[in-house]
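Entry 12.
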Amino acid sequence: MLHVAIAHARELGVTSVEAEYVQTAKNKPCLDFLLRSGLTREDGNRFVWPADREYAPPEEIRLEQEA
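Predicted 3D structure (tokens):
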């Protein structure tokens, strides 16, 4: 999902993609994902990816486009 969002942001000319973690009783898996995602953690709960860099999908994910 991050791969698709960042690729779209790059197409739009966006300079960075940001995600803000909101701490709730059930949101720990989201924090765990963000910590493993490769995004840079800034200001505690904000995670940033510079959109001038591609974000590769995990090797386990295969994207195909139909004609």
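Annotation: The chain has one domain: 2-50. The chain has two helices and three strands.
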